[in-house]
Design a protein that fits this description.
It is a single chain. This protein has three domains: 130 residues, no CATH class; 108 residues, 3-Layer(aba) Sandwich (Rossmann fold); 281 residues, NAD(P)-binding Rossmann-like Domain (Rossmann fold), CATH 3.40.50.720. Strand 23 and strand 24 form a beta hairpin. 46% of the residues lie in helices and 16% in strands. It starts with 6 loop residues before the first helix and ends in an 11-residue tail after the last strand.
Amino acid sequence: MLIRPTFRRRIAFFLVGDLLLGVLSLYLAYALRFNFAIPSHFLDHFWRIYGVLMLCKIGAFSFFKIYFVSWRFFGLKDAKRLLLAHLAAYGLFAFLFLLFSSWFNPMPRSAIVIDFVLSLLFTGTLRISKRLYLESAGIPGYRKTLIVGATPKAVRMIKSASSGDIPYFPVAVVDADPNQWGTYVENVRIHPLEEIESLTEKEGIEAALVAATFPPEELNRLVERLGKAGIKDLKMVSLISDRHEPLKDIAIEDLLARKPKDLDIDAIRNFLQGKKVLVTGAGGSIGGEICKEVLEFGASRLIMVDNSEYNLYRIAEEVDPKRSSAKLLSVTDREKLGKLFEEVRPDIVIHAAAYKHVPLCEANVENAVENNLVGVMNVIDLSISCGVQKVVNISSDKAVRPTNVMGATKRIGELYAQNVESGDTEIVSVRFGNVLGSSGSVVPKFKEQIQKGGPVTVTHPEITRYFMLIPEACQLVLQAAAMAKGGELFILDMGEPVKIVDLAKKMILLYGKEEEIEIEFTGLRPGEKLYEELLIDDAECKTKYDSIYVAKSTRYPIEALRKDIETLLNGEEKLTLLKKIVPEFLRREADRLIRPGEEPPKRH
């Protein structure tokens, strides 16, 4: 750690180096002046001359900020400043010599001219040596960098760059605050945001570090602007406390994140505090995040259920083991699940277990129907028999006018939750769209395709989806559950739908590979819609929260529903029986609907 470069150590290193090189250059200048036979009387005042000359040089170097330049970043502009510093230093020495010539003599004046040249050569070589070594050794260079935002994070990044902690060389800072323009952050000048393009062209900027916080819409525009300016390497500065990973790639999640304006933390905490909570599908993207949120908001006990050993192990490693337990079993196994319910007697049950991947469900209809329907019925029935206070059934936007098996089974789960005789147990379903970064979603798929060099595959140029960050979606689920009285179908406001091809283009831009990676359209897959919907019609109404809607109830006599589900589970014609329960189910096969010529449903 003693040799780790820091601001003070760098100054001390170059100061000692300049003192040593100063002795060498002055003595060599004397030797060259006298053809390596220096008369002894000319050395009488050597150290006096050296001392004054070095004071002049150190003063000039400090004035021209030569000691502030990092070893590996020394360039043409710095060489120019070094020349000016030498001219100033030797000019000052000449002035002192004229005033106090008797104090310096005997002094070979031509040796001072030689020393000027040698000193400029030696000090310049010292400062550019590391850069020459890195470039000649093929070690990746340090990229000229623009910092966006004159913030404490910007100060930290400039210091980190100077210390060699990050492979970037900040040459300019841009900020929206006019009061900052023309001032300096760690000797780097602050410019208006409007100068991004001109600075990029003038300085040859290759990278940008975003050190300020922007809303997703503004960050979107900034990323597009930086991309158009030719900056391919985009990074976001993380929290100041994160010393080991100060930078992260700007992710598509940062651009699409939509913070709910009416998130009621107190309502969620009051709902969960001191409760025993059982979560099915705990190892999945949604279930896992709900487990973390449940403990974060004060649940006394968390019981995590999943039939995937690896997924359950992974979430168990991420939560407090003192307040949680992991149970490896399937929600379709009613006997084992019943024993668990009897044993733990949960206060709240959150059912997130389901087969959710549309193409896999289309290819495995029987398994999808069994897992999704038997699972939701077992969880709801056992919750009622064990006196669970509240059951939350996680549903999907694909349950609206479903065109696939997964969506149809989710819709039946909603119907069962709404119509079952629940006694004192309050049962609620919460429907929402895609979450960013969940397993099997387009975001990790696109990332993998980009990293492999493409192409990025999009099913259709017009396909759109709703997106929300996983933590935000899960918090809204818990908030909806907190306000539920039983029998509701809540719908989360997912914002505006996103065109998948635009999402793909933006991800390619973030990776800086617009010219390398192509987008390939492959056609809609079986069961896939062009447009997902969250609302069925205008009958839905808002709750006291703008981010949460409640749908009107759909009545379906429970005995008839149970009988129809049993027939579906035991019958051969699964698709026909699904359509009997969900009349709006129109299964899409590959790139067409079962009904020829049917238009895609309109968005609401």
